[in-house]
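Hello Y.,

Per our agreement to keep a running log of every chain we model this quarter, I'm adding this entry. I've kept the format consistent with earlier entries: sequence first, then predicted structure.
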Amino acid sequence: MTDTQIKDFTGHENSPGPAGTPINQAEKSKVLIYTTSLCGFCLAARAMLDEKNIDYLEIDVSDPGKRQLMIQHSKGARTVPQIFINGVHVGGFDEMAALERAGKLDAMLESGPPAESAIPPGDLAPPMR
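Predicted structure for the entry above:
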């Protein structure tokens, strides 16, 4: 696997897109989640989204460069997961779970994306389930 390919948590490699960048499918995904493979809260966040049958774009930030992009995108947050729904920074799993308990998560997931994509360049990878 080259460093321009992304390996999802199921072990499938995704082909690089034009000019060696991952294929841009971000606009098909309402949810962006920064994760690492050994994070229990990341697993719980993915399970909640999977249970709701929500497609999401997952970016593994084990690589220091990708982690730095996450920190910039999340305005300084350093823990994983960091979750964005329709371009809005929700926070981590605890915050997403609080939205679910308050009955607000489904409405957020059903609303449309913001006028401009909040996914920064360099963070693009195929959506995962």
